[in-house]
Write a structure and sequence with these properties.
CATH class: Mainly Beta
Helix content: under 10%
Mean pLDDT: 90
Low-confidence stretches: none
Number of domains: 1
Structural class: mainly beta
Number of strands: 11
CATH topology: Outer membrane phospholipase (ompla), Chain C
Order of helices and strands: EEEEEEEEEEE
Number of helices: 0
CATH architecture: Beta Barrel
Shape: globular
Oligomer: single chain
Length: 214
Amino acid sequence: MIDFKTVRKKDPTRFLIGASYRYATQQDNRPDPDTGQTEEGTITQDQLYGILRGEYDIGYVAGLFAFASGEATYDAIQRLSIRGIPKLGIGYLFWEEKLDEDRRNFFSGDVGGAWVYENFFTPDPNNTFWAIAFGASAGYHLPYGAHFDGRVDYLPAVDDFTGDYFLRSQAGISMPLVGPIAAKFSVIDEYDSTPATGTQNNSLYIAIGLSLVW
């Protein structure tokens, strides 16, 4: 897993750019009964994810902010050519503890509108829908420079609230190694109520990799 994230803060704005790529194989050491040779490994992860997000503090209400974001995902295991999700809405900072000029602990929630576009490798038709975007984010600095971050997004379709939706949750702990390079342990769970034919609704990923943060 390779993960990149940068956050630019200049009151009253915050701007985030992030990207990650996960690739993993599982080796099957059992020999083929006909040839006697060991079978090749099976690809278990092959996903590319990117996000752009901007936030603007609304000055007349403490903790209130507006946001706009765009996400894109490629997932070969889920036969997903691309999932694009632009979002726009408002959020509220429920709790914040400023540690210094660049670091803070926080918990926030947001709600808005989104458009979900899914294009599959299979003959399935594209899946597109307008959604209500519910989200929550948290970050907390731990001892020895470690940092926890988490995010949950729930996007139910406006016209089919319980039948067509996408849910993504992630949590990670990073530990600095050298300069901007950190080791990161991540757990990511994605649930798509209408996945490509022949794939599972739920995808759970556990990864250990390197993170580049500055």
